[in-house]
Amino acid sequence: MSDCIFCKIIRGEIPSKKIYEDDETLAFYDATPQSPVHFLLIPKRHIRNIMETEAADVSLLGALLYRAQEVAKTLGCEENGARFVVNCKKDGGQTVDHLHIHVLGGRSLDWPPG
Ligand code: AMP
Ligand code: ZN
Question: The domain spanning residue 24 has which CATH number?
C-alpha cells in the first residue's frame, strides 16, 4: 500500500533498523522502544490487522510467530523470555494498520495491561 508506513519500510523508502528478513517477513526495531529489546515482525504483504487474515494466511502467521521467537533468542531473550503482542484495531490499541507482532524483552513486564 502506497501510504502505509510499514510498506514504506519494506520498500526502503523510509529508514529502519532491520534485524531479519526473508521473502515474506521482516523484523526491525521499534522506533519507540518500550523495553531494552523491542522489535516488530511484519509480513511483507500488506495485511491491515490480524482479523483481516484468511485461511490461506495460516502458514504466513505461523512463519511470523516462528521468526519472532527465533529473533528474540538471537537478541538474548531465551533465558528470561519475552512478550509477543498483536494489537488489533481501536480497542487493541493498534496505531499502524499493517499487521505486526511486537516482541518485548530484556525486562520484567506487568500483567494485565492497563
Ligand atoms: P501499534 O500501536 O501496535 O500499532 O504499534 C505500532 C508501533 O510501530 C509502535 O510501537 C511505534 O513505535 C512503531 N513505529 C511507528 N513508526 C515506526 C517506524 N518508522 N519505525 C519503527 N517503528 C515504528
Ligand atoms: Zn502496509
Answer: 3.30.428.10
State the residue range of the domain holding 24.
Answer: 5-105
Q: Using an 8 Å Cβ cutoff, are 29 and 17 in contact? A: yes
| Averaged pLDDT, 8-17 | 98
* Domain assignment of residue 112, yes or no: no
Pocket lining for ligand 1, CB < 6 angstroms: 5, 14, 16, 30-32, 87, 93-96
- Give the number of the ligand closest to the Cα of residue 13: 1
Question: Structurally, how many domains does the chain consist of?
Answer: 1
Given a contact cutoff of 8 angstroms between Cβ atoms, the answer to whether 18 and 111 are in contact is no
What pLDDT, on a 0 to 100 scale, did the predictor assign at position 2? 85
As a whole number, the mean pLDDT across the chain is 97
**Quick check: is 100 catalytic?**
yes
- Beta-bridge partner residues of 21: 26
